[in-house]
Task: structure prediction
Amino acid sequence: MGKNYSLGSVEVSLSPRERFEEYLQSRGMRNTEQRRVLVEHIFSHHEHFDADQLIAQLPAKGSDGYVSRPTVYRTLAEFVDAGLLRKFELNGRAVYEHDYGYPQHDHLYCKSCQKLIEFQSDELIELRNRVAEEQRFRVTGHRLIIYGTCQDCIASRRRPKRKVDQI
Amino acid sequence: MGKNYSLGSVEVSLSPRERFEEYLQSRGMRNTEQRRVLVEHIFSHHEHFDADQLIAQLPAKGSDGYVSRPTVYRTLAEFVDAGLLRKFELNGRAVYEHDYGYPQHDHLYCKSCQKLIEFQSDELIELRNRVAEEQRFRVTGHRLIIYGTCQDCIASRRRPKRKVDQI
DNA sequence: ATCATTGCAAAAGATTTGCAAGGTC
DNA sequence: GACCTTGCAAATCTTTTGCAATGAT
Result:
């Protein structure tokens, strides 16, 4: 029941929210207002985010739908556990991205503007599996980040904006 | 003067210590006892390490050769700056490894025993450069970690050690 | 003598935890 | 009603910083 939820190559039949409810049920956990607010918000936005960015986007303390910081952290961990989100580290902080229904990918990270650019490479997966096999290592996943400067930042270095920059 | 310092494919003529002294000189920084203790210690051990592990291996407070925690952090940053060490993050903490005179490589990380296994792949570098080129991205480096279970841990799961484990 | 560096104590930043009050099944 | 969750305050963990004393050149 319900439409298919799909983003790229992976095809699944439950929405993130439905999948999370299933997860909660199966563990005897409760479907609370805060958890609903968080699934709803996170899966209607497709960017990468960290805890602070997320909290900044949610209703402020006092407003309806407010979720406290500890609950945000606790719930993010549940999403990771439930396979809805993937977590990784960048500059000493945790960054989250959609996992459920989202195709496997890696990132280019621009050190100048902090942008994360996604890319997908089957060749990388093959390479990874080959390397692991050689070491008789059982792979569960990987994380590749390519560091450097993105196209836009290369361009704006060459032709500085002349607006606020460098008086 | 001095033997060549070599570990793999990269060939250099200064020892890490000499290179660091050069770096200090060129910046008007001073060659202190603490800095000597740290270069000396770090480059006589070839493992990956984090700040805590390093401090645990150094002389304790009160002993000769003691280096305070803030100075350890400050000096590790200098080593990174000087190109002697590379820094990356694992489980929310900074991990360091030799860079100077050490060939480029990536890691397999065993989630069971926390071991880091190094591997080298030219194919990965090519793939990385190709991906970057497609995006007109200027690469400065990358970091790939393959997560999973190492050979030893796979084996000891199958045939538990029967010693202290699981009574 | 000058000025970089150190150690200490304290701060900072991110995330986690104990616990009493409140919400869900 | 039982017991999972929440928000608060406080703790934790890792790393950084201000500053007076110390040390290198």
Remarks:
- The beta strands of chain B are 5-6, 11-12, 49-50, 85-90, 93-98, 106-110, 116-119, 138-149.
- Chain B is about 35% helix and 25% strand.
